[in-house]
Backbone:
């Protein structure tokens, strides 16, 4: 069943509208769990003596969008390393998103004079090419990539590069859908159905890759559920946007071969369940 549907990321404005909507329809495990996990990851840097109390801390964060989650990680770093200078490099290609991040970061640097940001309006690939051109080889204690690897030209190459960018004892983190979640299983199935893996990466792909390289990793699972009720209403604009997010294709219902559309909707029906009055 081969077809050539367009990536949802080919239209940046539409992409961020769907991403925002998807986030609104999503319920995730408590913020407290998220915070506790990040604190334990970041505490590990001092426990392993990678960062001494007054050392400068260097963080790289890639594919940040407007940085909502990344800012929370930075707040944790500030809290746990109150006497350190903290430099954060931000790599994000979408200008509008980066501008929003910059605007909201101003308050953070006013409040925390030890915090500085270096901004790169670029893809990760572009950032790496510039580093190479400049002979730049500085590294980081912490590398954070939240929901970004789906869109990279070559995610496996990026994982290798992430690893090389981290100082010994430092941490690289990738947040991405688990292949065992309903959404992750749909990604895995869908790439076979369409015959195209574009934007359909799961955490299982990354851990399998790391195993082949003999690299150490930890998994922190965070449960979440997305309200898919409207996906079945072909006239619903928002339902179609959620459907596009589920398969990472723009205007999927309009352009997909009928058989592929049916296969996807059948999968969603089979794997969703009702909670209160919402289909999830
Ligand atoms: C799903 S959003 C994640 C935004 C944010 N990290 C979050 O979790 O809300 C994916 C981000 O990856 C960025 N992106 C896409 N291709 C990229 C690339 N090659 N290098 C770096 N970032 C990229 C997009 O512009 C977008 O902001």
Residues:
């Amino acid at each position: 069943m081969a077809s050539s549907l367009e990536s949802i990321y080919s239209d940046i404005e539409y992409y961020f509208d769907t991403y925002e909507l998807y986030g609104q329809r999503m319920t995730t495990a408590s913020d407290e769990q998220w915070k506790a996990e990040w604190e334990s990851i970041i505490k590990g840097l001092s426990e392993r003596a990678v960062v001494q109390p007054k050392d400068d801390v260097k963080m790289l964060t890639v594919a940040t969008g407007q940085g909502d989650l990344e800012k929370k990680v930075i707040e944790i770093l500030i809290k746990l390393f109150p006497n350190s200078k903290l430099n954060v490099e931000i790599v994000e290609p979408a200008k509008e998103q980066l501008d929003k991040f910059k605007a909201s970061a101003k308050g953070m640097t006013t409040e925390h004079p030890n915090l500085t940001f270096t901004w790169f309006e670029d893809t990760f690939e572009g950032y790496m090419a510039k580093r190479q051109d400049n002979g730049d080889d500085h590294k980081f204690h912490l590398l954070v990539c939240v929901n970004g690897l789906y869109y990279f030209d070559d995610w496996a190459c990026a994982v290798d590069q992430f690893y090389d960018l981290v100082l010994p004892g430092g941490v690289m983190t990738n947040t991405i859908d688990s292949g065992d979640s309903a959404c992750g299983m749909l990604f895995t199935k869908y790439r076979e159905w369409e015959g195209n893996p574009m934007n359909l990466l799961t955490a299982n792909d990354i851990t399998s890759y790391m195993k082949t390289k003999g690299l150490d990793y930890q998994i922190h699972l965070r449960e979440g559920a997305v309200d898919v009720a409207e996906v079945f209403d072909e006239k619903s604009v928002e339902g179609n946007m959620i459907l596009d997010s589920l398969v990472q294709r723009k205007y999927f219902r309009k352009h997909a071969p009928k058989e592929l559309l049916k296969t996807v909707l059948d999968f969603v029906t089979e794997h969703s369940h009702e909670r209160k009055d919402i289909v999830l």
